Amino acid sequence: MSEYAEKIRGIAKKLLDDGTVDMVIGFRKGTMPLINEPCFVKDAAKVDALVWDSSCGVNLANYLPKRKEKIGVVAKGCDSRNIVTHIVENQITREQLYIIGVPCTGMVDRRKIRLAVGKEILSVSEADGKITVTGDGYEEVLDKQEMLQDNCAICIHRNPVISDEVIADPVEEQTDVDRYADVKAVEAMDPEARWNHFEQLLDGCIRCYACRNACPLCYCPTCFVDESQPQWVGKSVDKTDTRTFHFLRAYHCAGRCTDCGACERACPVGIPVRQFTKKLEKDCKELFDWEAGMSLDVRPPLDTYRPEDPDEFIK
Description:
This protein has two domains: 1-105 and 156-176, no CATH class; 178-305, no CATH class. Helices cover 31% and strands 13% of the residues. The protein has helices at residues 2-17, 77-88, 110-117, 150-153, 181-187, 191-201, 210-214, 239-252, 262-266, 274-288, and strands at residues 23-28, 37-41, 71-75, 97-101, 123-127, 130-135, 138-143, 165-166. The longest helix is centred in the N-terminal third of the chain and has 16 residues, at 2-17. The mean pLDDT is 94. This is 4Fe-4S dicluster domain-containing protein. Keywords: Iron, Iron-sulfur, Metal-binding. Residues 248-277 form the 4Fe-4S ferredoxin-type domain.
């Protein structure tokens, strides 16, 4: 992926040199393998810090709401869709942004790689669809496709939907995936089994709010869970409070979530948080033929009203 990084650096340098933007948001190498960090470059002399590989999973749209300056931002498919959502929701203007589009073949799941290797990882490299992992006295080569984040494995919008410049030719979109196999499995359960499924799913939650903080949709100045007048939900790890937090947060993402996987990537205990938002994503697709972040010209279904909207649920 070094050619991607070189192109990103070249574009960033030009944008900063000619004053098109005040800052470029991209990625730099993290202090640990498989965890690249957001990087905010304001000096053209420092663009060499920018990198690109399959560990650039953080959604950089998370850093755009309420910014005032002109920004260049590196965006893969899901990031670009969240940028569209931010523009539609008036969190930033299109004129403030120079979007550097990156066709994406998926981000790797560091937990899957660590589990597959079972040893301390000192360095990681990738080429030709293979991930090479090295450590003290060993080297292992893994198939990237088998190590993808779950959301990337079923992604059908790998290319940016909005951009000012794209660094490579579009990649082939996936058409032979079932995006909602896990949701359908839960829907098929009887009520008791479904309740137990979610009870077990949330059992390890420590209420750290990493999922909320990583989500580009959670930009409210004060989250409902932090409100004290009135207090909507307790902040303990009580099962009712935990359940309420996750369900309410998911509903706040309804019709807006792009399934970028930021929530699951951030969770320190590995909870498959996307199971909540994917159900609502599926409902929006089936009820309104809606996919979030695909157009600047169409409002999300849950902030508009049309007489032909489904209303069979009204008794």
